[in-house]
Amino acid sequence: xxxxxxxxxxxRTGQRIFxxxxxxxxxxxxxxxxxxxxxxxxxxxxxxxxRQLHIFSRRDVLKLGLSLSIPSLxxxxxxxxxxxxxxxxxxxxxxxxxQIDRRPIPVSGxxxxxxxxxxxxxxxxxxxxxxxxxxxxxxxxLTQKGASVIDSxxxxxxxxxxxxxxxxxxxxxxxxxxxxxxxTNGREEGIAQMNDSFRKMKTDKMDLMQVHNLVDVHTHxxxxxxxxxxxxxxxxxxxxxxxxxxxxxxxxxKSEKPDFVQCCYNIATRDAEKELLxxxxxKGIAVLINRPFEEGNLFxxxxxxxxPTWAKEYDIQNWAQFFLKFIISHPAVTCxxxxxxxxxxxEENANAGTGNLPDEKxxxxxxxxxxxx
Length: 373
What we know:
Layout: E1 2-9, E2 16-22, E3 29-30, H1 58-66, E4 72-74, H2 78-89, E5 102-104, E6 111-113, E7 117-118, H3 129-144, E8 149-151, H4 159-170, E9 177-182, H5 187-200, E10 206-211, H6 217-230, E11 233-239, H7 246-256, E12 260-264, H8 276-283, E13 286-290, H9 297-302, H10 319-328, E14 335-336, H11 343-350, H12 360-371
Parallel strand pairs: 1-3, 7-8, 8-9, 9-10, 10-11, 11-12, 12-13, 13-14
Antiparallel strand pairs: 1-2, 2-4, 5-6
């Protein structure tokens, strides 16, 4: 079988560059993007804000992971290009009927998808029509793939407003699990900020409200408990991303027993494995994972390396799925929330929640492989 995949667009000529991954003499299957830009365009696809600081984009790295070798590059002529677009738009690389796995929230038994969406930087689009148009496709793809969790914060600039505006435009609020945070000092200030988040995200009830980075945590937890009793929020939680603060998260889990805890955990930063994740599982607390790609830095580590041949046994097609499957295969993890501003990346991320998951032995093998790069 031969897979022809789009790599990039020449910004000067507008020609698309494709990679041909030959695997035999069977009928060629063209891999579509959604959507492909016109052949005459001189604009390259927008990059995630988190990826702009890196020489290699995530898409470049994912192409390396898609196949163990790229035997040839080809530049299609005008006729071939038109045929490619027509065929690509009629195909879908991943089966849209396959839904991602769900895990229970221990306190209620409600099951949520194991892959969600973070909005730090990526959804801080302001009033930009171009950025909002791309993010609209991200939200549309999120629900199409069966995912629902969106995590935001007042700290994230215009992200809450953008999520609210776009979900209203798509009329898909009932398909979303909205999570945001309180990030200020003082009881009244916290109440005012949270009310503002409700307004920005255009919802009467928040699925999850969290105390961001433990700012005035005891004050806000009192409010959140009361709001949960009143039905204003469904769940409450605490968050941090610095491993050095995990001892405080652990103390709060033991003393306050929130419904959720959110922390940083990935194949390079594994501090949470020592005590935080086992404790959350033991206490029946749902776990959201932030920074699953170390804000894109993991892709720099693997940029010149192919996936291990055994990755396909776990339905891993690219490095993003390698990283995400490592995370969600931990028994304490409920949902990982990678951020992206591109629908294609959202689809790749969501597909990590389907298929086989590595067992403990394979997880150690994955970590060792990554550490040796």
